[in-house]
User: What shape does this take?
Amino acid sequence: MAAVTLSRAFPRLLARLLPVGLALARMAAQAVGIVVIVFLLARLIPGDAVDVKGLEGDLTAAQQSELRHQLGLDRPVAEQMAAWSWRALHGNFGDSIRFGRPVSGMLATAVPETLLFTGLSFAFGLLLAAGVAVGAVTTGNPVLRGLVNFFNVWSVALPTFCVGVVGILVFSIWLNWLPVFGSLVLPVIIIGIDSAGLIVKPLYEELAEAATSAHVRTARAKGLPGWRVTLRHLLPTAVPVTLALSGLVLTSLVAGTITMEVLFGLPGIGSLMLNAIHGRDYPVIQATIVVVAVALVAMNAATDLLHRLIDPRMSS
Amino acid sequence: MNVQVSLNTPAKKAPPAPAPLLSLRNLVIAKAGRRLVDGVSLEIAAGRTLAVIGESGSGKSLTALALLGLLPEGLDIDEATRIAVDGRELGPRDERGWRALRGRRIAMVFQDPMACLNPFMRVGDQIDEALRRAGIASRTERRQRTAERLAEVELPAPETLARRYPHELSGGQQQRVMIAMALAGAPDLLIADEPTSALDASVQAEIVALLARLQARRGLALLIITHDLSVAGALAHEVAVMQRGRVVEAGPAAEVLVRPRDPYTARLVGARRRLDEVAPHRPDAGGVIVEAEGLCVDYAARRLFGAPHRAVHEAALSLVPGRTVGLLGESGSGKSTLAAALAGLRPLSAGRVRLLGHEVVPGGRPLPRTLRRQCQMVFQNPYGALNPRLTIGWALAEPLALMGVPAREREARIALALKEVGLEHEHAARFPHQLSGGQRQRACIARALLCEPRVLICDEVISALDMSVKVQILDLLRRLQQERGFAMLFVGHDIEAVRWIADEVLVMNRGRIVERCAADALDEAHVRDPYTQRLLASRLLPRAA
Assistant: This one.
């Protein structure tokens, strides 16, 4: 009996898991594609790490070619990529060419810093956007409605690095409230507002439309109190849009955090990556890009899966 | 306030009180100075059914929303409006006062149940919410009552059904859930705004019968808002007919729907009656110009490795000049797909179509342009079928340009075509949004006529139109066919309309043609197929007085 139900349940389970599996496979392919492109792009830039070292440390031509051979930089690109990929799959990203330290150790200090920074900024941005949009729709308050447009225009019109420079000038130099380097407060607020501006407008439009929708009207006709109508009937309608926008915002956070980390001297992935690019430090460039690419792909996968979980219409 | 409400609730068992359950006097709703509802007065007594009949734009739905304090923002309600429930007056914007009544004394069922149910909540939870609102604190009792309500609206396996999401139910089941939810708070008045309009004919009849049974069993007062005279006739004791925001006639249903006094009501009633007259059988003219055999159409699988969905199974039909074949079916029966395949707009998966001498087979040559022109299609939604940025004149000039008619001749031809479909020359300068629905459909027919078609395929062309306009369009199509002698395929779901215009009727169910008979033989005595018999039996009969 149990065997019969199992054999019947199995295809159904498979049918449910298959789309998830396909999505994961697609995402793995995306990550691999990004890594390959970056590997090739890094080698398109004229000059290599040995050139940089040579300029800094007066290496002779013989020493340089010896070093190149040692590092494997004189072998064909395809061979370099294959060797690197094989090691990367085992968690070994090699040593930094410039500093001689293991790249994995450098990542271990940079990744938590960046995670904290992006996590805080994203949470702040999402809460700000959701609060303003929900408030504007449910109360119809003109000030809140104005804020929706204000944040939207702000994020479109003002690049984060400009706001960052002005922020340092005002809060660190003139008012002397915050240190110039190392404080998370200002970058989190700047990136948070920038992300909120991307989310708040579409979210507001979606909620405003949902507020006049038939099922919200039905909920009111049932005599439910206003807070319950908002919480159970209005807000769930906006979840798919919020998820889709969050995916978008998280992607744009990658660019945003790099500039902020450099500007505010935060020792995260962004600073690491930029320094590595300046120094042609291939192993570090590759490792940081892999981390970012995998993170991006994982975030997209997560929003997709969450959407499937939350919206019952998606899973049948 | 709540105490008073609950004291009044057992009034159902008592003989009907002299004070009406709900009275509305002089309702005036305006938007930007324009009166949408203009001085409507209604009274609903306990246990009685009132139907408010009106076509689109008559203000009937706004009136219903006002009776629950649910009018959308941005509408002005006149000071002189008086709404009273049990003789107690309530301001139209008195949100607290209305909320106390909603769900408990007055409940509402809307059109389009799919949109009205929350897609993220199981239907049981949505009913549970209404029960909690009605003051039932115990969870087990709510669960039991949810099942009871679902059983009361005659849904099978209530416990299983309660765990489903709205999208997992059919349209009829969704509407039953809506009704169950409305009944959760044991209301005295149920307002149903077009409760059956989004549903298929057979489902519509079931819902109407259910409402009638519920009303009799519970002694509910019922307010039905509808455009459909047969729904009103089947349910109502009293009717009120609305036109342009005013009540033009009110009285007992048996009186108003049989001997209307107001000219507008008379036109509505007359339009329905016209369709009951079945035209005499016309002799066969011969000379088949469209012939389909074994026609199958598949839709691509929605999933990887899934089997394709066969929308039309081995359909066979033939069209003859000067005669009309009616294709009758409910939504999803494959009738529109079949029509599109006949017109060469959708590739066949099997079978063949011989259209004006050209053979269409799967993977074969597409229809040559000159032939495509001679086979014209008119669609359900005339607004979607006209480019909103082109005037009617421009839209009509397009087919002429394709045919190579010189520019100087076009205007005269367009004027003639407009005249033929009952439009004026001035309409050529208008944009689609400046026309009414009926006028837009006339423009679409004019556009099809300009190509001088030998075959005209009409896909649900009257479905989006009001009753009185429907009959005008049917008249127009029949007259044009008599004048021009084209062969016509008329696709529809309205039994009366299809029977009225067609010579031969084909009935489709789940992609198959299940019945073919002469139009005048489309009645319960003649048809063989059980599905067709069910369809015919689902027509609504007037309520016994």
About this structure: The mean pLDDT of chain A is 82. Residues 2-44 of chain A form the longest helix (43 residues). Residues 111 and 291 of chain A are 9 Å apart (CA to CA). The interface with chain B takes residues 22, 140, 212-215, 217-225, 228, 232-233, 236-237, 239, 310-313, 316 of chain A (CB under 8 Å).
